[in-house]
From TrEMBL, chain A:
The chain crosses the membrane at residues 16-37, 73-102, 114-137, 143-163, 190-215, 247-268. Residues 79-269 form the ABC transmembrane type-1 domain. This is Carbohydrate ABC transporter permease. Coiled coil: none annotated. It is found in: Cell membrane. InterPro entries: MetI-like, MetI-like_sf. Keywords: Cell membrane, Membrane, Transmembrane, Transmembrane helix, Transport. It comes from the Bacteria. It comes from Paractinoplanes pyxinae. Belongs to the binding-protein-dependent transport system permease family. It is a multi-pass membrane protein. It holds the Pfam family BPD_transp_1. Its main location: membrane. PROSITE patterns: ABC_TM1 (PS50928).
From TrEMBL, chain B:
Residues 1-20 are annotated as: Disordered. It comes from the Bacteria. This is Sugar ABC transporter permease. Keywords: Cell membrane, Membrane, Transmembrane, Transmembrane helix, Transport. It is found in: Cell membrane. The chain crosses the membrane at residues 33-56, 98-119, 131-153, 181-204, 236-256, 296-318. It is a multi-pass membrane protein. PANTHER family: ABC TRANSPORTER PERMEASE PROTEIN, INNER MEMBRANE ABC TRANSPORTER PERMEASE PROTEIN YCJO. Pfam families: BPD_transp_1 (PF00528). InterPro entries: ABC_transporter_permease (IPR051393), MetI-like (IPR000515), MetI-like_sf (IPR035906). Gene3D superfamilies: MetI-like. SUPFAM superfamilies: MetI-like. Coiled coil: none annotated.
From TrEMBL, chain C:
It comes from the Bacteria. PROSITE patterns: PROKAR_LIPOPROTEIN. This is ABC transporter substrate-binding protein. Gene3D superfamilies: Periplasmic binding protein-like II. InterPro entries: Bact_solute-bd_prot1 (IPR050490), SBP (IPR006059).
Length: 284, 326, 428
């Protein structure tokens, strides 16, 4: 039996049980995605094979080519549209939410707590029927069936405001804000010079989550962009998956291709996040 | 929607600047008004895209709005809400929603805590593990639910194949959609799969910002990692735990995509042949778009809204108390 | 392709705009609309599956250089729902939308949201259509919201190769003689299942629907009263009997398992309206020549079939009306019949040699024209009530519960009545 010292977990070395646990978690996480890949590389029969198909086939290029060349699906264009839509939404969300989060966490103003409660309440509004009303609003703005209609409602998120508030409240010391104030710095400068650098890890996390959420959103984009020739990738994907008969190798090939950009993003941004998280730890 | 547009509007709340004292005016503006400017993008966008639909829904809820028979349109007062109380479909959906909610939220958050704790170590290939657990969150719901629907198929489904490997369901394969318990488990699995890694990441980032001296100064001498987790780490990250509890409450009670795509007969939106796994969000959708009864559906979505508020409030209070919060 | 504003303007403004639109098309007057004066028009057409429009689009665009047809095929239910949402919102609907029999009642009750085709020269077509087909898309106050495309008709598709292996006759006439009524059909099924160990039909619901279609009165009579003890009872009993006989594979139609069932030979027969042929062909392309078509027990009936409708919120309703009228011309109808199998709803075409002599290669060269035309002509049209769709779903769900083992077949009928009454009650 080992003796325990009062050492912070992050300074404790992982044991073999740690690695075993993580490996199991990873298998569980990766398997459905892996299987999606397997089907996207196979022929029609693989979906229902028994025992199940567990190894990739050689058909990926064939299936991928079908996805890209299918008429009226606009798959290639849809990937570009998705980058555009998700990129704008992410940039705006990070900016607006960190501003609002900063205000809620560190600034004093009348009605602060009440307004924060309102932010949280907005999260709880179910949207099954709101969709018709939202469509009418977009109609008034003249944005129906455009990418703008998909982008606009996503520019801020209550989740983002809430998350940023929680993070800034802890990560930015009050004294720092106060002393900058006494030196005569305006609030916007405090935000820019003090808050933003301190919340980089949170920005990385929220940015990734927002981008992924925007990329994967499909109900509202489907209503707006169904049948146009500039769909987002999820609309194109549900176009692929529609029709009375679902050709799984093709749909899942499309799904896999539409997931790859996110995986790439995670590989790039993931390091950033990890580094950010580590930095946060070192600072405190 | 730029910030400059908003300033004139916001200026109303600030008293007019004393003439000549630009510095002073700027300072007052900075203190009094800037906070509102900072939060205004959220509220303005929400007013346009959130409040109007909400009010619209509120009015619709007090009306009968029947797409199939226009002659029935009119004011209903609270009749729609009264009808809810005796609607067995509503109560069934409520039960399902809570069943699936508990089966997904509790294991989800516990697993996320444990995984975050595993990740919160000195590890080889840290980035690899952290990226790995986020994979489910990345995967488009359109794709993953399609995969899971095949996974939980009665014939030739992978889930049944795994079961048969450990000796279950040999002669008659389990029809996952036929009973409540199996359908709930299948749907909860989809939800858990998607969100565990995500929550673990949120916990991890909070855990990493706990000052190390908290552990070093801990009164419990020689605490095991397990004990350390529950007696030091969890209380320290309580705000984030609270945050995830609320989020999964809100998400869980509005569960829609998973039961929808799990259904063998999605066009009916009936959540199984006997409503085994029909959630409230799905019932709202069915009443509105299948039964074409938009007024009644709107009243259901208001009821759901209130239920979420109550449950989120209870969870908030409970989590604070359990965590021994301030 | 810009599809702009117009959207949010309510009431008065919308009327003005529609007036404006008609003005605009007057200048590009009818046949002259392909002239240089006409501006570029895109007509968006929403439908599902394959309605054989690719060739028609090319042909029409060639003859009308200023018109572009944008075909948007989607999922069956999603398309109807999309249409409904956009009708409610007042904008965003396609210029032309296909509407299926299962949804036509729902939409004809909102006739004010569609172009009344009687105003667009549609009246000329009345005499060409099967009477019931014409009436089914007509609102109570006499507005015609759609022109018929196809009717279902009813026949029984079967796997001749599997029949042969099971020692059953292979030839389509001999097979038709095996089952003049549904009891015989179930007996044949039992024999098949005994010999092969495999199931015979895909599911109980896919027996319920065609049997119900054969009855003179469906779920509702013309006074909108639920009539469960008539047709529905007959159809329900047949499905229960088949399930009890153990010949049903219990696969929900149009779902992944069903598609796999085709490939894995999990069933040997499938009740097929004409539009089902295209589906079989797409699902199991390598079963070419293994399918054949026999008569369905119990004779004619209709299951499915669609209409072309024009939402009145559209900007180019005249151009859309022209295209729709062109699509339902005999020449185009026959072309669609040949490419995908959909049977026209204009009886004159049933006498047309191009239809009568047509043989479907995929279905072992079965004379699909003759088979389906005969069933379409002999069928007794059925009134579909306002709540027909949801009632059907409710009863189908009861059948599924029996198949899943959650409900005993002898307790099923009262439950079906209860569920159907629940749906019917919401109509009041």
């Amino acid at each position: 039996m080992s003796t325990y010292v009062n050492r912070a977990p992050q300074d404790t070395r992982g044991t073999w049980t740690t690695y075993l646990g993580l490996t199991l978690v990873l298998l569980f996480s990766a398997f459905p995605v892996y299987w999606m890949f397997v089907i996207s590389t196979s022929t029609d029969d693989a979906v229902a094979a028994s025992p199940p198909a567990l190894l990739p086939g050689a058909q990926f290029l064939v299936n991928a080519q079908e996805v890209f060349t299918l008429n009226e699906v606009y798959f290639a264009a849809s990937l570009i549209n998705s980058v555009l839509v998700s990129g704008i939404i992410t940039a705006a969300t990070l900016f607006f939410c960190s501003l609002a989060g900063f205000a809620f966490a560190k600034l004093r103003f009348k009605g602060r707590n009440a307004l924060m409660v309102v932010v949280i309440l907005t999260l709880t509004v179910p949207n099954q029927l709101g969709i018709v009303a939202l469509y009418i609003v977009m109609g008034k703005l003249g944005w129906n069936n455009t990418l703008l209609a998909v982008i606009a409602p996503g520019l801020v998120s209550a989740f983002g405001v809430f998350y940023m508030r929680q993070f800034i409240a802890h990560a930015v010391p009050d004294e720092l804000v106060e002393s900058a104030r006494i030196d005569g710095a305006l609030t916007l400068r405090v935000y820019w010079n003090i808050v933003l650098p301190a919340i980089r890890p949170a920005l990385a996390v929220l940015g990734l989550l927002t981008f992924v959420m925007a990329w994967n959103d499909f109900q509202w984009p489907l209503i707006q962009l169904n049948g146009t020739d500039y769909p987002t990738s999820m609309v194109a994907l549900s176009d692929l998956a529609s029709g009375n008969y679902v050709i799984y190798r093709r749909v899942l090939a499309g799904a896999f291709i539409a997931t790859v950009p996110l995986i790439v993003l995670l590989l790039i941004g993931g390091r950033q996040i990890v580094r950010g998280i580590m930095e946060g730890a070192v600072k405190s | 929607m730029s910030l400059t547009d908003l300033r004139p509007a916001a200026r109303h709340s600030a008293p007019p600047p004393p003439p000549g004292k630009t510095k002073h005016w700027l300072y007052r503006f900075d203190i009094k008004t800037i906070p509102y400017v900072f939060i205004s993008p959220f509220f303005i966008l929400f007013a346009i895209f959130g409040v109007f639909p909400l009010i619209f829904n509120g009015i619709v809820a007090l009306r009968t709005w029947r797409l199939d028979d226009r002659s029935l349109d009119g004011w209903a007062g609270f009749a729609n809400f009264e009808r809810l109380l005796t609607d067995e479909d509503f109560w069934n959906a409520l039960g399902n929603t809570f069943g699936i909610f508990i089966l997904s939220t509790v294991p989800q958050l516990l697993a996320a805590l444990i995984i975050a704790n595993l990740l919160n170590r000195k590890l080889r290939a840290t980035t690899f593990w952290r990226i790995g657990i986020l994979l489910p969150y990345l995967t488009p719901v359109v794709a993953s639910t399609l995969v899971f629907a095949i996974f939980f198929a009665r014939d030739n489904g992978l889930a049944n194949w795994f079961l048969s490997l450990v000796g279950f369901g040999q002669e008659t394969p389990l029809d996952w959609r036929a009973q409540k318990w199996s359908a709930w488990i299948a749907i909860a699995t989809m939800v858990n799969w998607k969100w565990i890694g995500y929550n673990a990441l949120l916990y991890l980032s909070a855990m990493q910002s706990i000052p190390k001296d908290v552990y070093e100064a801990a009164a419990v001498d020689g605490a095991s990692p397990w004990k350390q987790l529950w007696s030091i780490t969890v209380p320290m990250i309580q705000p984030v735990v609270l945050f995830t509890v609320i989020l999964s409450t809100i998400g869980g009670l509005q569960l829609f995509n998973e039961p929808m795509m799990f259904d063998e007969n999605p066009q009916s939106a009936s959540g199984g042949s006997d409503g085994q796994f029909q959630t409230i969000a799905q019932l709202i959708y069915k009443v509105g778009w299948k039964d074409l009864d938009l007024g009644y559906a709107a009243s259901m979505s208001w009821a759901l809204f209130l239920i979420i508020l109550v449950v989120a409030g209870i969870n908030f209070a409970a989590t604070r108390r359990l965590g021994g919060g301030r | 392709m810009r599809r702009t504003v117009r959207a949010g303007l309510a009431g008065v403004a919308a009327t003005l705009l529609i007036a404006g639109c008609s003005g605009q098309s007057l200048e590009g007057n009818d046949d002259a609309s392909n002239g240089a004066s006409g501006e570029q028009i895109t007509l968006k057409v929403n439908f599902w599956g394959d309605m054989g429009l690719d060739a028609l689009k090319a042909k029409y665009e060639k003859d009308h250089p200023n018109i572009k047809i944008a075909l948007n095929s989607g999922e069956f239910n999603a398309q109807h729902e999309d249409l409904q949402k956009k009708l409610v919102a007042g904008s965003g609907a396609p210029d032309i939308s296909a509407v299926d029999e299962g949804f036509i009642v729902q939409f004809r009750n909102q006739a004010d949201k569609f172009v009344n085709l009687l105003d667009k020269g549609g009246a000329d077509f009345q005499s060409k259509y099967l009477d019931w087909k014409w009436k089914a898309s007509m609102s109570a106050d006499g507005k015609q919201i759609g022109l018929g495309t196809d009717v279902g008709g009813l026949a029984m598709c079967y796997r001749s190769d599997l029949f042969e292996k099971a020692g059953l006759p292979k030839d389509r006439d001999a097979v038709s003689k095996l089952w003049t009524n549904w009891d015989d059909f179930i007996k044949v099924g039992q024999e098949y299942t005994k010999k092969t160990g495999k199931k015979f039909v895909d599911s109980g619901t896919n027996l319920f629907n065609p049997v119900l279609a054969q009855q003179p009165v469906g779920f509702y009579d013309e006074q909108e009263n639920l009539q469960m003890d008539g047709g529905p009872k007959v159809a329900f009993d047949v499905s229960m009997k088949a399930i009890d006989a153990g010949i049903s594979a219990n696969l929900a139609s149009f779902q992944p398992n069903w598609d796999q069932g085709f490939k894995k030979d999990q069933f040997a027969v499938l009740a097929c309206p004409a539009w089902m042929l295209g589906h079989i062909q797409d699902t199991a392309p390598n079963q070419k020549g293994k399918w054949d078509i026999a008569a369905i027990p119990g004779g004619g009936g209709n299951w499915g079939g669609s209409w072309w409708t024009i939402p009145s919120q559209g900007k180019n309703i005249d151009a859309a009306a022209d295209f729709v009228k062109w699509m339902v011309q005999p020449e185009q109808q026959i072309e669609v019949f040949k490419t995908v199998g959909n049977l026209p709803s204009q009886p004159a075409l049933y006498k047309d040699p191009a239809v009568l002599d047509y043989k479907k290669e995929f279905m072992s060269n079965a004379p699909t024209g003759q088979i389906f035309a005969a069933t379409a002509e002999s069928l007794k049209p059925q009134y579909l009530g306002k709540k027909n769709g949801p009632t059907r779903v409710a009863v189908e769900n009861v059948i599924t519960r029996v198949q899943q083992g959650g409900l005993k077949s002898d307790a099923a009928w009262p439950e079906a009545v209860k569920q159907a009454e629940k749906v019917a009650k919401t109509a009041k």
